[in-house]
Amino acid sequence: MAQLTPILEQLGVALPDWVPGYRTRLLDGNHLAATEHRLFETRADSAAPLPGQALVMFDPRLMLMDEVIPCEDGHAQERSLLDQVVAKLQARDLVIADRHFCVRHFLLAIRDREGCFAIREHKKLAWEAAGKLYGRGQIEGAAVREQRVSILDDKDQKVFLRRVVLTLEKPTRDGETELAVLTNLPEEVADARQIGRLYRRRWTIETAFQELACALQSEIDTLSYPRAALFAFSCAVVAYNLLGVIKGAIRAVHGQKEAEELSGYYLADEIAGTRRGMLIAVAVEAWAVFVGLTAIEMAEILRELASKIRLASFRRHRRGPKKPAVERTYDNDRPHVSTDKSLFHKSAFAYNSV
């Protein structure tokens, strides 16, 4: 991260801050999928073996993952790792996270480090109303209300926060029609509607996790040793950040709109497909020239290479609207069906209807 940031700054492709004057850090956890291979110690257990998890902080200004906190215990609560997150925060950092991270000591620790947060409220967090709930208008797909609330610090002193409530036009996947976001951002910095929009943009990190899993194969199902699985995940994070620099160079040359249409999967597939041949055709010594390059020199090389890329070969294919689910009939006496007979009957019906 420290080596890549100057290159992106030289390219001039850093995106605008989500909140001016604050460094946004999206926080989320990623549990590695259960492994197919089993160690001797887990073979007698029918439960799926989990190799670990990791907390990741994502910088949306540079579109890079700037911190990874690995944990070998796949059953450990994400909250048990929050002290390590706090240690990496700086003044004027803005943490945006889901309700799993809505813990009193975490909110207070962010405030103590002179940072801010916009974190979805967890039902178990105890707070006390310090004002009425006022309407604050509308944002896309939701009505916005706001009230002043307080929580207690370790000395039983009240700490006042803003509670922004979004009443959704469409329910979430869990069927919820209302969610609340707790924040200590000053109102003159971000009003209630901006807070609602900030939280909705949290899905940027979910998209990054999807690219890690699908394009960069961050979860290898045969790596059953926790340290091996977490090392592979960390390598995928490094690869993701390197791809982020490539996308940054493309943004610098071809513009933001073209860069947004790039498929991370196609880029990763191209690199994986040509790497082995390049290592054969190009001597190892030839790569040493890149070691001593400054950020300015590296940025110029990336600009030149990006100007030659055929963008049409790497554009994503956006899927159309989902088709409505077909209603299925269930018959306990007929648990299986012959595909061949089903095709025959359908074609025969189509022929007779003509």
Concise account of the structure shown:
The protein has 354 residues and is α+β, with helices and mostly antiparallel strands. The chain has helices spanning 4-11, 82-87, 104-112, 192-200, 203-214, 226-254, 256-260, 264-281, 295-306, 339-353; strands spanning 23-31, 53-59, 64-71, 93-97, 116-120, 128-129, 134-139, 142-152, 158-168, 178-183.
Chain-wise SSE layout:
Blueprint: H1 4-11, E1 23-31, E2 53-59, E3 64-71, H2 82-87, E4 93-97, H3 104-112, E5 116-120, E6 128-129, E7 134-139, E8 142-152, E9 158-168, E10 178-183, H4 192-200, H5 203-214, H6 226-254, H7 256-260, H8 264-281, H9 295-306, H10 339-353
Helix pairs in contact: 1-6, 1-9, 6-9
